[in-house]
Amino acid sequence: MSRRRRLAALSTASLVAIAGLGAGTAQAASSPGKDQSVLRILHKMTLEEKVAQLFVLQVYGTSADTTDPAAVAANRKLYGVDNAAQLIDKYHPGGIIYYSVDPPNLANPQQIAHLSNGIQQAAMRQRVPIPMTIVTDQEQGSVVTRVPAPFTQFPGSQALGAGRRPRDAYATSKITGQELRAIGINTDYAPDADVNTNPANPVIGVRSFGSDPQLVSKFVAAEVDGYQAAGVIPTAKHFPGHGDAATDSHTGVPVIKHTRAQWEKLDLPPFKAAIAHGVDSIMTAHIVVPALDPSGDPATLSKPILTGILRDQLHFKGVIATDALGMQGVREKYGDDRVPVLAIKAGADELEKPPTDAKGNGLFDLQLTSVINAVKGGELTESRIDESVYRILEMKKKHGLFANPYVDEGQVAQKVGTPAHLATEQRVTDRTITLVKNGVLPLKKDGRKVLVTGYGAATTQTLAADIGKRGPATTVYQTGTSPSQAAIDQAVAKAEDNDLVVVTTNRAWDVSPESGHNGPGQANLVKALVATGKPVIVAAVRDAYDIAYFPEAQTYLATYGYTPATLESLTKVLFGEISPKGRLPVMVPVAGDPNTTLYPFGTGLTFRK
């Protein structure tokens, strides 16, 4: 039997499953308003299969049946199995999440499509055939992007916010969704619905559309619509709002000190907009918000927040997904065996990426067993588990996964990274570059000598190549995010031999000398270059806040990312090929004084071509 016929046969099996599995028909008939075909599947499942359906797991390898030694070793450490197919046979989880970590899942579009089909084949040959939720975090931009080129690399959220056109967000999310679906990824953990009101936020920043709740709401709604138009399940995150965090929830427990009134004004609107546009899934945040729940529990484990607010007050009827359960923000207060039980009791449906212990051994089996035992011991009822499983199955049916969970591997090249998609990428990106301060632009296309220095080997090399195409002779000297005094001195020496300096910065505002921070090196680099008297152009390639730490810079642009398309757009602005159209989607405060404005929201200079 050919591969195409095998996939068709398995699809037929899934249709048979949703048409009715025979068991539980009487119970299904007693649930008015519910999808009876989904109920028939639910009632065929054992308790163990139901609980497993709640989990979205990471697995290693580029194929479902991988024998790669590194991937096999990593999977055995997590689950005691070799690969994704064996994981599904053993546990029957509800979803798989893809990562680009080593050993990766994501090498190229053709390979990803084959991996996805293999995972779905394993799922559809189970006793109760249920298609998999296949997930990744493709927020786009330069910070949280999993699928590599030739997948189209659109600008991220804050760049789109700078462009001020929600229709661009709709177009980019629709194309992103189409390309994800073409490689078998049916769920994207995007858009980010956080309102980044804290310039020192260590984990959100440019992942947010901006600091204004109305702006963020418009773009979140547009992206929800775009993903849904492409047939991909969007997930608005991180409820009830991670934008004012001063701690990274991967490593600690952020406490959001907004009053209830402040939360309703600042953090709530984008989630209301997502719900109004029919978002299928909302992800929780591992943050403590005393005004919403004074218990000290993180939102992921808070019944007042997930059930009291999200379900009862906002009337959200979709799937509530947790952020990754290996993050410190959710592990700080309770043991790993208690976390999934408490999350379900709080109102969560989908449990993402269980943790590992100190030696890297997986704790999924512990968490799965803990939930099963909580039901058998009476702490959780099976009907409560059924509620979550029903929502997950219903979502899968709504998006056509039961009808056909597979993708046509022969069509991938015609659907991913197409010339039309790449043209849209460059067109949208061209509108995002924000000129905050101007002393020398636009540049002439002449033979002057230009030093390109600052953050990132790929960033500086690509930018220098783009500049060199316009006539200048370029020299590259990459100094990273924490340049030493010796590196600064070397950059200054090179500047003396050039006519112009272009320096890129990445979170130069993170000046703390403590471990895990960038320190003051980037700010010192820019100040030293300005002191040479040479014309200096600074491009912040991540957060726009950097200029607060070197206000003497005469020319400053914000790009919000450093994809090749972004650096091309930046270069086009530098030479006046296009006029800068971006406007700050955040307020830039004075260094050390977050309540005093240096550059207001909406700042954006331009010039005639």
From TrEMBL:
Signal peptide segment: 1-28
Residue span(s) of domain Glycoside hydrolase family 3 N-terminal: 46-394
Domain Glycoside hydrolase family 3 C-terminal, residue spans: 433-606
UniProt xrefs under InterPro entries: GH, Glyco_hydro_3_C, Glyco_hydro_3_C_sf, Glyco_hydro_3_N, Glyco_hydro_3_N_sf, NagZ_Beta-hexosaminidase
Pfam family, one: Glyco_hydro_3_C
Keywords: Glycosidase, Hydrolase, Signal
GO MF terms held by the record: hydrolase activity
EC number of the protein: 3.2.1.52
Catalytic activity, as annotated: Hydrolysis of terminal non-reducing N-acetyl-D-hexosamine residues in N-acetyl-beta-D-hexosaminides
UniProt family annotation: Belongs to the glycosyl hydrolase 3 family.
PANTHER family per record: BETA-HEXOSAMINIDASE (PTHR30480:SF13), BETA-HEXOSAMINIDASE-RELATED (PTHR30480)
Name of the protein this chain belongs to: beta-N-acetylhexosaminidase
Organism: Actinoallomurus spadix
Lineage: Bacteria, Bacillati, Actinomycetota, Actinomycetes, Streptosporangiales
